[in-house]
Design a protein that fits this description.
single chain; alpha+beta; Uridine Diphospho-n-acetylenolpyruvylglucosamine Reductase, domain 2; Uridine Diphospho-n-acetylenolpyruvylglucosamine Reductase, domain 3; Alpha-Beta Plaits; 4 domains; seven-stranded antiparallel beta sheet; four-stranded mixed beta sheet; globular
C-alpha cells in the first residue's frame, strides 16, 4: 500500500479533520518533555470513541503499523515519543467525565481528562482526588495510568494505581476488556486492571477509567524547615510522622530554592540560608494538632536538626510554600536537565544519597547538580544541568556515561531506576538493574499475549 493510500484509509476510521500530517503537528505530538530523542511520527490520529480506537488498532494490526499513545505529553521517560514513523494516537478528544458517584466516591473518566479537571470536579462535590504533581494542569488521566504516576502526596495516598477502581481497555489485538467493574472486593483470579497500570501503552490503550475519590482534607497546613545537612532531614521526618498524619513530606536543596527565587514571583520562606529544606503538610483539624506541630518543630530545633522554619497561616501562604517545591522543575527546564528519578526504601535514603552524590560530584565536577524529591516515600530526583556553552548531544553523552555507576548503586540498594516517571526509551536499556532477567522474560511473554503483532508502543520498557 502506498503512503497516500495508507493515510487515506486511516482518515476513514475517525471523524473528518482528525488525522494530521503537517510538520508542526508531527513535531508537537511526536514528543514529550524529554529532549533526548527526535520525534518522527508519520501521522497523528484523534479518536473520539472507543469504537474508533478499536478500529485504529485493528487497522494497525492489518498493516503492521506501530501505534504510540499520546496524552498531555508531560512524561519524562520518552514513553510517548514516536521516533520511527509510528502513528501517534492522541486522546485529546476523549476528555469527558461522567457524573460523580458520591456513594461509592467514584467518577468515570475518558483517558484525555486533564488531572486538574478531575481534581476540580472532585472539589465541587466536597471530595478529593489526591494524585498531584507539578504537571497536573496538562497531564491526562490515561497517561497517569500508563506510567502509574506518583507525585507529592504518595506518603499519604499512594500512587495512581491505588485510585483506579476499574478500567476499560482496548488490547493490542483490538479486543475491548472491562477490568474489575469498579468493585472494592473482587477475588476472581488475576487482576488484569493492575497489569495495564504502568504498562505505558505497551499492552493496549485505556479508553475509560473509573477513578476513586476521597474525602476532602480539612485545613491543610504546610511547614518549610531549613536543615544544616541532609542527614538531619530523616530524623525530622521520623519526629513529625510520630506525631502527625502527614499528607506530604518533600525536600529540596539550596540550589533548587535559588532557581525558584530567581523567578522573583515567590517570597522566600525565611531569611536564614540553609543547605537543605524540608516541606511537610498535614491537616490542622484542631488547635491541638497545630500545637503538636509547633512543639515538634521546637524539638527538632533543640536537637540541631532544624535551623529555621515557617508554618502557613493562610491558604495563600500554603500555596506560596508549595510553589517553592512545585516550581523547581519548570525553573530548571530551560537548562536542558538530565533527570534521574530513583528510589530506595525510606530508611536507606541518607546512605544512598551520599553514594550517588559522591559519584555525581566526581563525574561532573563542572556541572551544576540540583537535588529535590519526595523524600517521605524514598524517591529522589537528581537533575544535572547542561552548561550554556555545551552542545546538547555532548552533554547527554557525558551524563549517560555515568549511568552505569548510578544504576549499580541503585541495584546495590534494591532500588528502582524509575520511581514514578516510567521506563519508556530513557530507562529501557537499564531495566535489568531493577528487574531480574526472569521477570523481564515474563513481561515480554505477557506483551506477546496482549499484543501479538508488536504494534503497541514498540521499543518502550524493553527492546523489541
Amino acid at each position: 500500500m502506498t503512503h497516500s493510500a495508507f493515510l487515506e484509509e486511516l482518515h476513514t476510521l475517525v471523524d473528518p479533520g482528525k488525522v494530521l500530517t503537517d510538520a508542526d503537528s508531527l513535531e508537537a505530538y511526536g514528543k514529550d518533555w524529554t529532549k533526548q530523542f527526535a520525534p518522527a511520527p508519520s501521522a497523528i490520529v484523534f479518536p473520539k470513541t472507543t469504537e474508533q480506537v478499536q478500529a485504529i488498532v485493528r487497522w494497525a494490526n492489518t498493516h503492521k503499523v506501530a501505534l504510540v499513545p499520546s496524552g498531555g505529553r508531560t512524561g519524562l521517560s520518552a514513553a510517548a515519543v514516536a521516533t520511527n514513523g509510528e502513528v501517534v494516537v492522541s486522546f485529546d478528544y476523549m476528555n469527558k467525565t461522567g457524573a460523580v458517584n458520591t456513594v461509592d466516591r467514584t467518577v468515570v473518566c475518558q483517558p484525555g481528562v486533564i488531572t486538574k479537571q478531575l481534581q476540580n470536579l472532585a472539589k465541587d462535590h466536597d471530595l478529593y482526588y489526591p494524585v498531584d504533581f507539578a504537571s497536573s494542569g496538562s497531564s491526562q488521566i490515561g497517561g497517569n495510568i500508563g506510567t502509574n504516576a506518583g507525585g507529592i502526596k504518595v506518603i499519604r495516598y499512594g500512587m495512581t494505581r491505588n485510585w483506579v477502581a476499574g478500567l476499560k481497555v482496548v488490547t493490542g489485538k483490538g479486543d475491548l476488556l472491562e477490568l474489575n467493574k469498579d468493585l472494592i472486593k473482587n477475588a476472581t483470579g488475576y487482576d488484569l486492571r493492575q497489569l495495564f497500570i504502568g504498562a505505558e501503552g505497551t499492552l493496549g490503550f485505556v479508553v475509560e477509567a473509573t477513578m476513586r475519590l476521597d474525602r476532602a482534607p480539612k485545613n491543610l497546613t504546610a511547614m518549610v524547615l531549613g536543615t544544616p545537612d541532609f542527614d538531619s532531614i530523616m530524623p525530622v521526618l521520623h519526629a513529625f510522622r510520630g506525631k502527625l498524619d502527614l499528607t506530604a513530606f518533600e525536600f529540596f536543596s539550596d540550589k533548587a530554592l535559588a532557581k525558584v527565587m530567581a523567578r522573583g514571583d515567590v517570597p522566600p520562606p525565611f531569611t536564614t540560608e540553609c543547605p537543605f529544606y524540608a516541606l511537610l503538610e498535614f491537616e490542622a483539624t484542631t488547635e491541638q494538632v497545630s500545637n503538636e506541630a509547633l512543639a515538634t518543630f521546637e524539638h527538632c530545633v533543640e536537637q540541631g536538626w532544624v535551623i529555621d522554619g515557617v508554618m502557613s497561616q493562610s491558604e495563600q501562604q500554603l500555596a506560596n510554600l508549595w510553589k517553592l517545591r512545585e516550581y523547581i522543575s519548570e525553573t530548571i527546564s530551560h537548562r536542558t536537565p538530565y533527570k534521574n528519578d530513583i528510589s530506595v526504601t525510606v530508611a536507606q535514603v541518607p546512605a544512598f544519597l551520599k553514594e550517588i552524590d559522591a559519584i555525581v560530584s566526581e563525574s561532573y565536577p563542572d556541572f551544576e547538580v540540583v537535588w529535590y524529591g519526595h523524600i517521605g516515600d524514598g524517591n529522589l530526583h537528581l537533575n544535572i544541568l547542561k552548561p550554556e556553552d555545551l552542545d546538547k548531544e555532548a552533554f547527554f553523552a557525558k551524563c549517560v556515561s555515568v549511568n552505569k555507576a548510578v544504576f549499580e548503586t541503585v541495584q546495590k540498594y534494591n532500588g528502582s531506576i524509575s520511581a514514578e516517571h516510567g521506563v519508556g526509551l530513557v530507562k529501557r536499556d537499564y531495566l535489568n538493574y531493577s528487574r531480574s532477567e526472569a521477570e523481564i522474560q515474563y513481561m515480554k511473554a505477557l506483551k506477546a499475549v496482549f499484543d501479538p503483532n508488536g504494534i503497541m508502543n514498540p521499543g518502550k520498557i524493553f527492546a523489541v
